[in-house]
TrEMBL record:
InterPro entries: Acyl_CoA_acyltransferase, GNAT_dom, N-acetyltransferase. GO terms for cellular component: cytoplasm. Belongs to the acetyltransferase family. RimJ subfamily. It comes from Arthrobacter yangruifuii. Keywords: Acyltransferase, Transferase. Pfam families: Acetyltransf_3 (PF13302). Residues 16-190 form the N-acetyltransferase domain. This is GNAT family N-acetyltransferase.
Amino acid sequence: MPESVAWPVVLESDDVILRPIRHRDRREWTEVRSRNAGWVGPWEASNPVPGGLPPTYGDMVRSLNRQARQDSALPFLITERQDPARQPAIVGQLTVSTIVWGSARMATLGYWVDRDRAGRGIVPTAVALVTDHCFQTLGLHRMEINIRPENGPSLRVVEKLGFRDEGMRERYLHIDGEWADHRSFALTAEEVPDGLLNRWKSRRER
């Protein structure tokens, strides 16, 4: 199995397309994030250094691309094919981070989505797509998602996909200006031998 993220890569299922984030996406990404500031802000990682500023869009893209080249991250935009005559629209972001190789072969996944597109199955599809890619193509063994216990929409995503609840991590990440508790959810490759996307689609059809 490869010990490399084989970047860049595009993943898609029906109208949901995951593609690499780019510098030229700045205008559209900024518009979507600005419109969703109140929706995303309470769950967003913040800088714990006193007086520290959040990264600019350019800083974020450079950092994510550097991590991808170092085989430690997969920085995707979540896009949706809404009009056949136009390019798929940016509706969110998904990043596989802290990829560990060797004996662990695990990673952590985080995401956000446009509030206007929430509840339509876009994020579960995106998470299933990238988890299958990590398990089946990259040879990772474990995917982890850490969620604030107050974040109902994100909790519903892992519930729909069947991630296991592994309990609370106290003051796990610095979020929206303070150290915040998170519930940790995980899935291993053995739990989805036929693929997480297949399982998700099967559940949706019932």
